Amino acid sequence: MKISTKGRYALRMMIDLALHDAGGFIPLKDISERQDITAKYLEQIITSLSKAGLVKSSRGNNGGYRLSRAPENITAGEILRITEGSLAPVACLDDEVNQCPRSETCLTLPFWKGLQNIIDAYVDGATLYDFIKNTPAADTGNFCI
Fold it and tell me: Where are the domains of the chain?
């Protein structure tokens, strides 16, 4: 499994929204400048996150974006699945019901399921709050993931 730029940038954007939440909406250009990601690319990513209900948007002079829920209620797994799709290590685990004709006799399937469980536990166990909880309020510089 390899997380694309879209997934990495989505996570950075959401962490930025959590870190700079003062109750109002944050302009995309501000996130773009802080994260050194083009606003055009962030627009593509924020659309998916907005449709999924992770962010709220507002147009106009004081418009921008903000989280729809508290940072401790949004996981890295949610964000990555929205931007990346399935995080399954093998294609046969992409669907809820395994469609592989060999699934009943596959000797490697338990291994892949175990790996999937570890991946899910890890990404779903990390919230936006976990990323920002030890960040000093005055430190608003860039960060990498």
Answer: 5-85+127-132
The token duo for 59 is: 């147009």
Tell me which residue has tokens 């999937």. 116
Structure confidence by residue, pLDDT tens digits, 116-132: 999 999 999 999 999 99
Cα distance from N-terminal residue to C-terminal residue, the chain: 16
Fold for domain 5-85+127-132? Arc Repressor Mutant, subunit A (1.10.10)
> Using the 8-state DSSP alphabet, how is residue 93 labeled?
G
- Structure confidence at residue 103 as a pLDDT band (50, 70, 90): confident
Q: How many CB atoms within 10 Å of residue 85? A: 11
The span from the CA of 125 to the CA of 23, in Å, is 25
Can you say how many angstroms the Cα of residue 34 is from the centroid of all Cα atoms in its chain? 18
Q: Could you tell me whether strands 64-67 and 55-58 are parallel, antiparallel, or unpaired per DSSP bridges?
A: antiparallel
